[in-house]
What we know:
The structure is a single chain. About 45% of the residues lie in helices and about 15% in strands. It is α/β, with parallel strands linked by helices and about 575 residues long. The protein folds into 3 domains: about 150 residues, 3-Layer(aba) Sandwich (Rossmann fold), CATH 3.40.50; about 70 residues; about 210 residues. It has a 6-stranded mixed sheet with strand order 7-10-11-3-12-13, sandwiched between helices. The chain has a 5-stranded antiparallel sheet with strand order 2-1-4-5-6, with helices on one face. The longest helix has about 45 residues. It is elongated, with a radius of gyration of 34 Å. One of its GO terms (molecular function) is endonuclease activity. Keywords: Endonuclease, Hydrolase, Nuclease. InterPro entries: AAA+_ATPase (IPR003593), AAA_GajA/Old/RecF-like (IPR041685), Bact_Antivir_Def_Nuclease (IPR051396), P-loop_NTPase (IPR027417), TOPRIM_OLD (IPR034139).
Amino acid sequence: MRLKKFSVINYKVFNEKFSIDFSKEDIVILTGRNNTGKSTFLEAINQFYLPTTAKGKIQIECYSNQDETKIIELEAEFIINEETGETITIKKKYSNDNGKYYDEEDVEIKARHRLKETLDRILENSPYYITPYMTTEEIDKQVQEIYSQIITTELNRLEVEDVEGEELEQIKKDYAELKSSIPKLLRKIKKKTDTSLENVSQNVSKNLQSVFSNEYLRVSVQGGESNGFSISDIVKSTDSGVLIGNKQNSDMPLSTQGTGIQRMSLIYIIQNLIEQGLLGTNEHKMLLIDEPEAFLHPEAVRALSRSLYSIGDRMPLIISTHSPILIDLSENHTTIQVLRIGKSKAIELYQSSSSQFDGNDVNNMKLLNYVDSYINEFFFAEQIIIVEGDTEYIALKQYIKNQNLNIHVIRARGKATICSLMKILNQFKTPYFILHDIDNHERFINSTLKAQLTNCNNIYKLKSSSTRIFGSVPNFERAIGLNDVPNSKKTETIHNIVNGINKDLYDEARKKIKNLFDYIFNEEIGVELDGAFVEILSPLDYEDLFEPLLSREKKVIKRKRTAKL
């Protein structure tokens, strides 16, 4: 049964009802600023599955504003039939107690309720839950639960499946003999204890008859029947642990290692057990990881990202993260749903569709992942703009910083990479802006101009309905009133411009940059684009920018040929 929707109210920061609809994607990524509730939402999902025992009374800190007069409500909707789309909804409520389960009509689910068996199956399939601040005892408990599930899976296979191989056949035979012999032993013991209990019953009855002067009083002390043992009996009697070693020491408890190694070990254990099929075949058992990047250096985070994608291929995975590195642009993005947790709702930022990347795109993305580790921040921003070069990147970043806006600037470093980035953003159906150089420079020869026009048209071909494209004529430096600036001077020059150094010299350039920024991001101001910047609304706009130069080039060539004659 796949979790389709989860809602929470009156749980910690969620004092109003907050819901997330999950897609069919295997990897769900929760983003958002600090204290918005990413971690709390994962915790609430795990809380839904926790047993409602006397010792399980929820802490007062879990109630919104620590007000125990409120009712915490955790509501989960599950798809029970993928073909028909049939769903069921189960609520777990805490009202200053240990929690109770209810159906959609708020009828408590007790022993004879129609959903009791379904609820039991759901709770047996509780998720693995990994947090940044797990204690050593909690990690050991998680490992023990995983080991127990392995034992349970293997014993279930022995009971219902045919096995191949001499060793497995012998194990199955031993297991069958054990199941048969233990009930026989228990019956013999019961026969002996029943005789003793009968003597106790007779003696107690005589004592009561004497005390109450009633010869008809009878007490019968009886022993319970036993059907042998269950798989859970074996699981309870097993123990497990994780030992780790290095060059200096061997077979040390995992508890002696740093937090990063402890959590990575647990994640890798789960990954490998899944890949080897040792955790059973229930495809809807979830893995919840809160901030998996915590306590890891960047290269370890990249390695972790690869593992998470591998896990996501085998089981539903929900993570909360602040790390753009965990979203690997070079992966085949066919399994991701990205949501931003806000104050009152979760906004679906992206839901992947079929991959549209060719080999060159993937290579571009791999290069960018290592050259610019911040590129993936577009998953965390409210607005996105792709720029071609360093100069416009620095200029726009400064204005964004000054106004404290949540806008991410992606520095593509070339028109080919702009196209690759557009494919990614289009795949995730997100709006974005593009600012690139037109490169219709008067010094370029005919073949170079045609190549640049082709590059521009390639960008426009990938334009989605929510994409806006802007061009700098012929490039950003000239568009803001500078002459061609050497590459070695670009960073220094633009830094001086945006920071007010040499104010009189660069005052006009600053005005042009601000005007462009306001036109793109502050439409309500109503400014007009400066003539050196253009918004590309159709391929004809590119043609109009290149045609005068291409026509001029043809005339020059014609005159030269006439002179030779």
